[in-house]
Amino acid sequence: MGKKIIIYDTTLRDGTQSEEVSLSTADKIKVALRLDEFGIDYIEAGWPGSNPVDVEFFREIASYHLKHARIAAFGSTHHPANTPETDPNLNALVEAAVPAVTIFGKSCERHAREALNITPERNLEVIRNSIAYLRRFVGEVYFDAEHFFDGYKRNAEYATAVIRTAHEAGAQIATLCDTNGGTLPDEVAAIVTALQASLPDVRLGIHAHNDCEMAVANSVVAVQHGAEMVQGTLNGVGERCGNANLCSIIPVLQVKCGLSCLPPDESQRLRQLSALSGWFAEVANMKPFRRQPFVGKSAFAHKGGVHASAVNRSSSLYEHMPPETVGNAQRILITELAGRSNIVSMARGFGFHLDKDEPVVRGLFNELKKKTCLGYDYASAEASVELLILRKLARRGVRDFFKLVRYHVTSLRGSTGENMDEATVMVEVEGVVEHTAATGNGPVNALDTALRKALKPFYPRLAEMRLLDFKVRVLTTADDVGRPGGTASVVRVLIESGDASRTWVTVGVSHDIIEASWQALADSVIYKLYRDEEERRRQDD
């Protein structure tokens, strides 16, 4: 690999300024340890003294031995009314006792005058004195030049003077910040090039915000024109529209640009990227963005029949890189746009090598098309389509784990506000009839609880299964005289389930929401039991 680019993660500081992200001290510790394991160079963990969570984090992280990453504390230059020695912010940074400190200062003349209400000359003094003071106590000091690109476009001479001052005071790297996120890549290229020419001894970094959806592009362009450090966050979280997304920047720099971003075994680490992205979304209680480049579930998904046919011959025909490089996987979707090639590709993933002209493929294609027209969403419910295909192909292990005898759901609503939903389920397993009842928060929860209660004596591992999400969509239909279907419309139910090692989605469609829910629930349980048997069979082999 080529030149090493320093990856500076600010998920735990700038990322937590995202309106939907809130991390506890325990969460921040977990994220820091996972980032270290992945191979991030610097972890900017917070602003010491600004809030109790950050204070506690810096106290606790000191007891951990990180393998690769260095913890950085963040703060500002000293208040203009203080000296560095009397400034609480700078002293809190020193007391954090971390290997690295990053402070930000104004690099735009207008901000110095209007935001700080000081002269541009006094602003340079504040920057110089703050960095020089920190260098007395901290091994590594970095400077974030806030609003640098806007400032440079207003007054290039002053913005350059800010960077020169920071460098002369002892900042190891001066990071150029596109704080408002409004700079375009051609501007970044021109400004970084000009700055490098005027200050050849200064090491530069880039910190881009995504308000014009240019943060990744601006970060890559800055590196291509000389920046040595890239700041960003996992999944691009951050204030307003977010920060530069490290889950995109790292593979672009490493795979596309031939630069080094991770420790020596970087190809192995890069394969952890998709898992890291999904794991962080879970910790932050955020729904993963399916269409996120590189790591999103849809990043290497193929829906159209033409695409599926092509990737059957060579995945590179419709994929810019092997998905395994970043720990992702190719997905072939079955939808109303699918062709027989989609079925062939999916069947290959199950170990069947079929030709698209075989009768079984034609039969599957017609059945899937018919069900899609009825409202089944097989693009979202891959577990249901997998079961459908495996049953059609008579795959061993896919069997009738149970037979429904009957179910009944009752919803009781009291006048004083008490609500209760009760489901009774009767199923037959290998000739034994089990009849159970359960209550729940809503009819579907009651039905799910009753079904698994009936089956657990036969299949104990169902105890680890849980229902994660439940979605209902009304599919508008019309009656015989052309009037809208309204409450008589068909409904589609999608249920996401999970266990200790995986998640899966199943689908049901009916005029009756309880019947649609039952279809999805039954498929979900069958899929769990089938996968468990497959796992045991592999272990036995």
Which properties best describe this structure?
elongated, single chain, alpha/beta, TIM Barrel, 541 residues, 3-stranded antiparallel β-sheet, 8-stranded parallel β-barrel
Task: Explain briefly what this protein structure is.
The protein is an alpha/beta fold and 541 residues long. It contains 18 helices and 16 strands.
- The CATH superfamily name of the domain at 6-283 is Aldolase class I
Q: Treating each run of at least 4 consecutive H or I residues as one helix, how many helices?
A: 18
**Poorly predicted runs of 5 or more residues:** 478-485
Distance between the termini: 40 Å
Oligomer: single chain
Helix-and-strand structural type: alpha/beta
Please report the first level of CATH classification, the CATH class of the domain at 6-283: Alpha Beta
How many strands?
Answer: 16
Return Rg in Å.
29 Å
Shape: elongated
**CATH architectural grouping of the domain at 6-283:** Alpha-Beta Barrel
Mean pLDDT: 90
Give the spatial strand order of the biggest sheet: 1-2-3-4-5-6-7-8
Q: Strand portion, in percent?
A: 15-25%
CATH fold call of the domain at 6-283: TIM Barrel
User: How would you sum up the major sheet?
Assistant: 8 strands, parallel, barrel
Helix content: 25-40%
Question: What does it look like?
Answer:
It is a single chain. The protein has 541 residues and is α/β, with parallel strands linked by helices. Among the domains are: 6-283, Aldolase class I (TIM Barrel); 301-374, no CATH class. It contains 18 helices and 16 strands. It has helices spanning 25-38, 52-61, 88-95, 109-114, 120-135, 148-154, 156-169, 185-198, 215-224, 246-256, 266-270, 273-283, 305-313, 340-349, 359-374, 382-392, 443-455, 513-540; strands spanning 6-9, 42-46, 70-76, 100-106, 140-146, 173-178, 204-208, 229-232, 301-302, 331-332, 403-413, 419-429, 432-440, 466-475, 490-498, 503-510. The strands form four sheets. The protein has an eight-stranded parallel beta barrel, surrounded by eight helices. A three-stranded antiparallel beta sheet has the order 11-12-13, with helices on one face. The protein is elongated and about 85 Å long. The two termini are 40 Å apart.
